[in-house]
Design goal:
Shape: globular
Order of helices and strands: HHHEHEHEEHEHHHEHEH
Strand order of the largest sheet: 3-2-1-4-5-7-6
Radius of gyration: 19 Å
Number of strands: 7
Helix content: 40-55%
Structural class: alpha/beta
Largest sheet: 7 strands, mixed
């Protein structure tokens, strides 16, 4: 009979295994990409076409508009899942130092080439998965960005583990920006939007939705999950916002952002450190 700790360890190893499978997949996506957009996987699910330039511009501006008031040349930033650098190269000029991590070696290789070519001095990139960020060291970052990433987490339990690691590497006062979250409250509506005229018979719609739900491999999260974080001792405020943009697409209609303001306390850090031992 397994005890609780052994069971948790087995479940966690399965989660990491799924992350490893995703890592192989993304290496192949990046190798086959022809630009920064499809290297980041920005493809419309409805049509299979790349997001066009204006959509990508609005995607970047949404994050920039929300974070710029908190950025200055004294702030150290960590982006978990920096991808091809769409946000990293946009925000880094406003910071002291910007660290981008990604689990794809191809992504990191491409970014290192670009950083060297452009002689960028305040960006560091490392190949790490989200659950490995504690290796970066404790109390280092003022702002941590996870944008359009958690949908690729294998489950909510993995998100919880990453969350603990994030608190460890943050400075005592900081911000966590989790962006482009797939809204669990709109998941049904999103699947309905995928049905084209005449593609699914009326009496088959519920079966279509059930099948999509059963086969979904991306993580959808209710807004209330983040709202409930206000109950945590170290969270002083949570802002849930819709995506900013003039173009109506699957991002602006079915996704949202969460900005979490954190103020750590010594007692909390002792508890977290105890959990990691």
């Amino acid at each position: 009979m397994l005890d609780a700790n052994e069971f948790d360890k087995i479940i966690y190893q399965k989660q990491i295994g799924i992350v490893g499978v995703n890592q192989v997949m993304w290496n192949q996506v990046v190798k086959k990409s022809t630009n920064m957009v499809n290297a980041a996987g920005w493809v419309h699910e409805h049509s299979g076409a790349d997001f066009h330039d204006l959509e990508i511009m609005e995607y970047k501006e949404n994050v920039k508009e929300k974070l710029l008031p908190y950025l200055n040349n004294h702030k150290n930033i960590l982006e978990i899942g920096c991808g091809s650098g769409l946000l990293m190269y946009e925000l880094a000029p406003y910071t002291k130092h910007y660290t981008g991590i990604d689990f794809s070696k191809e992504v990191i290789r491409n970014n290192l080439k670009y950083i060297e070519q452009k002689c960028i001095s305040n960006i560091t990139v490392k190949q790490l998965s989200a659950h490995e960020i504690e290796f970066l060291g404790e109390n280092k970052y003022d702002i941590i960005i996870i944008n359009s990433v958690i949908q690729y987490f294998p489950c909510m339990e993995y998100l919880e583990k990453v969350w603990k690691s994030i608190i460890t590497v943050m400075k005592n006062i900081g911000i966590i920006f989790i962006g482009d979250i797939r809204d669990k409250g709109k998941q049904y509506e999103y699947y309905m939007s995928l049905i084209g005229d005449g593609e699914v018979l009326p009496d088959e719609i519920e079966y279509f939705i059930e099948e999509k739900m059963a086969n979904e491999n991306e993580l959808f999260v209710y807004k209330n999950y983040f709202k409930h974080l206000k109950k945590e001792e170290y969270v002083i405020n949570v802002e849930i916002t819709d995506k900013v943009g003039s173009i109506e697409n699957e991002l602006t209609k079915y996704r949202y952002d969460a900005m979490i303001h954190v103020e750590k306390k010594d007692t909390l850090m002792k508890l977290i450190n105890r959990d990691f031992i």
